[in-house]
Amino acid sequence: SGKTWSTLMAVLLQISSTTAMSITNEEREFFIALGERIARLRKEHGITQTQLAERLGVSQQTIQAYESGKRRIQVAALPELARLLSTTLEELFGQQQETTVRKRGPAPKWQQQLEAIDQLPKSQQKFVAQMLDALIAQATTKASSEGREILQ
To answer: Which residue has the higher pLDDT, 130 or 35?
Structure first.
């Protein structure tokens, strides 16, 4: 909800402005859980720590520290992190129920490929789309001719 979201952001802003020595156990647990979710989502998308680090403009060691909960993530980096992991900030913060049934959609491998295509420049996206159209047309033609052979 909006209230939960604004409260969470206020807490994060307060946390990010405090020193490392003053972190509470509750805050520590939050960052450990956040790091675990980041690691899980990163792995689900087939992204390495190094790749994620490059896309965020940080070191691989920083990503490792985020994932282990040893380092707090800058609040300003969270929206980009969520985008790179194809998730919402709410899910990243553990606010969304993960027990929801997955809607019919692309299989995980297809989803990864679609996301990779989405990262390409527009001209390359157009080329990939044209190649896919040609392959689908070829497969459809082959399938229909094989179907005719079976009927004869």
So the answer is: 35
